[in-house]
Amino acid sequence: MARTKTAATAPSGASAKTSRNGRLSNAERSAYFARREAAKVLRLVLRGDARRRAVGSIKSLVYSPSVKNKKATFALVCQTLKHLSIIKQVLDSASILNSKWKRQEELVYILTYDILFGQEISLVGDAEKFLMLHKGAIQSALARLLVRNKVKSIEDLMALYQTPDVPKPRYVRVNTLKMDVDSAVLELGKQFVVQKDDLVPDLLILPPGCDLHDHPLIVNGCVFLQGKASSMVAAALAPKPGWKVLDACSAPGNKTVHLAALMKGKGKIVACELNKERVRRLKDTIKLSGAASIFINSLNQPEDIEVLHGDFLNLDPKDPAYSEVRAILLDPSCSGSGTAAERLDHLLPSHASGDVHIHLLFGHTADPTEMERLNKLSAFQKKALRHALSFPGVERVVYSTCSIHQVENEDVIKSVLPIAMSFGFQLATSFPQWNCRGLPVFEGSEHLLRTDPVEDKEGFFIALFVKGNIIDRSKNPTMPSSYNSKETCSGFEK
Ligand SMILES: C[S@@+](CC[C@H](N)C(=O)[O-])C[C@H]1O[C@@H](n2cnc3c(N)ncnc32)[C@H](O)[C@@H]1O
Q1: Alpha helices in 332-457 (DSSP H)
Q2: Which of these, 37, 92, 362, 471, could form a disulfide with 73 (CB 3.0-4.6 Å)?
Q3: Which of 247, 278, 333, 343 maximizes ligand 1 atoms within 8 Å of its Cβ, making it the mutation to test the pocket?
């Protein structure tokens, strides 16, 4: 196995240059800062993980504006986390840390990673100098660890401890308000192997790991980084151009602007969001998508997507302003457990236990604090879904989560089903060709859609309610003529 070389590692020769003229080379300078940026991110990640309350995912922390050298920082954080168990054992055994360095343990972890697995580091900072002084003790501790684990090489040791990577294709959704799908395929095809998704027409599949953050099509809003399951939600709702549609919990707005594209910029979208900070992100997404400047209302006048900063639960369904709303997309706050792999949670110490796979599949949790959180979320989700179904003019409601937990998914649907039926709704099968359906915990759960956290690398849930007398199968390709699904979802027996 090749040793990992992070961008933060000073290239060989850099230290020689420092020692020759006593000045830092550019590579040394950027390695020095990347290690400090990585240490800050690592501190937040590890503290959040220890408290089981993450401030943000690894990616969101690295891609925050305050981090300058994003690539190097991301690589250092991920590599250090991957090897953290070995690094900690080595440092324990070497017994070199006094209280001063224990207070900076994240920086020490990162430097130790570079000493053990990266390339040579140069003596550019106090921490670097300290650890290089003890390089011999660190390497002896590693040698003892090899003997203890009965392995001959560091590569064997890494294989023993490493959490497997989760390769996942990179999905991008073409913003058809700005660019057609074929042009996007041509443009992205200059750099990557691009395939069209067979289920969502405006979705493209690129190779795992390709970095698109700075790609011109991303920067100018022609394509959005959006996963497959997330892109299936607005497609399942299938609003028609000219409709009035409410996005109930909308920030950061990925599904709002997908709705706008599906409606071909015709009709009206009201996007509601409770959180002030996230309203700003929602507005940015709308601006980037171009939806703000091209929407045309029923009177043929230009119209912005209307952003409502407030609580969806406080919108009055009897208010005449909402009498013409025909579809509601409800993607409420949820545990996010289905995107744990995407968020790289498998790298975190809390995921090091052997029952990760069971947890990934079924969302079981024995942690009472976590259970309490899930129950609170579930109570809100039920309330919000009941509210969505009570808007008198609404014909279609889609409910989605990025959670694998039954309590946020099937249980929510089961509990609102009687009231939904009393309003004239029934469950419809979105994407009937999709095999992985809801857990069989009530009659009708086969209409529900799950994405498989193992196979699809993300666990999403989608439920579609349609007013009974207006199910028109010929006009709605996401609905089946009959439901006839094979069971293939990992581990779910019907
Ligand atoms: C899962 S996110 C929505 C993601 C969004 N649909 C997208 O695809 O970009 C849920 C959002 O609902 C917002 N939210 C939570 N409770 C709300 C409420 N009562 N009313 C409106 N928005 C709410 C949260 O602040 C959060 O931004």
Answers
A1: 356-362, 368-389, 410-422
A2: 37
A3: 333
- What pLDDT sits at residue 484? 34
- Extract the runs of DSSP E, i.e. beta strands, from 248-360: 268-273, 306-309, 325-330
Closest C-alpha residue for ligand 1 atom 18: 311
From the CA of 337, how far away is ligand 1's center (Å)? 16
CA 400 to chain centre: 14
Q: Write the single-letter amino acid at 28.
A: E
Q: Average per-residue pLDDT in the chain?
A: 82
What sections of 200-313 are H helices per DSSP?
216-219, 228-237, 254-262, 276-289, 291-294
Q: What is the DSSP letter of 331?
A: -
Let me know: does 232 contact 431? Beta carbons within 8 Å. yes
- CA nearest ligand 1 atom 27, residue: 251
| The pLDDT of residue 296 | 59
Name the DSSP letter for residue 10: P
pLDDT tens for residues 385-414?
999 999 999 999 999 999 989 999 999 999
Q: Between the CA of residue 251 and those of 235, 274, 303, 333, what are the distances in Å? A: 18, 9, 19, 10
Q: Which residue has the tokens 């602007």?
A: 257
ipTM over 0.90: yes
Q: Give the distance from CA 61 to its chain's centroid.
A: 13
Residue 341's pLDDT is 58
Alpha-carbon distances of 246 from 70, 115, 416, 464, rounded to whole Å? 36, 54, 19, 15
Q: Which domains does the chain have, with CATH numbers?
A: 14-161 (1.10.940), 170-227 (3.30.70.1170), 230-475 (3.40.50.150)
Judge whether 402 counts as a catalytic residue: yes
Phi and psi at residue 336, in whole multiples of 5°?
75, 10
Residue 252: cis peptide before it, omega within 30 degrees of 0: yes
pLDDT of residue 481: 35
Point out the ligand 1 atom lying closest to the alpha carbon of residue 313.
19
> Which residue stretches of the chain have pLDDT < 50?
1-20, 353-362, 472-494
Q: Are 217 and 184 in contact (CB under 8 A)?
A: yes
